[in-house]
Specification:
Layout (H helix, E strand, L loop, with lengths): L1 H17 L2 H28 L7
Helix pairs in contact: 1-2
Length: 55
């Protein structure tokens, strides 16, 4: 998922450089959403996979 966030960020940067503001805004929005989802899932996986001390 982080891969796709980076891909959309690169698309947004290229589109912004070329002057396609609508495409750049949409791609940047997708990148932000995917990055937030990635961070939330990463934190949830860290919390759920934490194990207590082994005896």
């Amino acid at each position: 998922m982080l891969y796709w966030a980076v891909v959309f960020l690169i698309i947004a940067l290229i589109a912004a450089f070329l002057g396609f503001s609508g495409v750049a805004g949409t791609a940047a929005g997708f990148a932000k959403i995917l990055f937030v989802i990635f961070v939330i899932l990463f934190i949830v996986s860290l919390v759920l996979n934490r194990r207590g001390p082994r005896i």
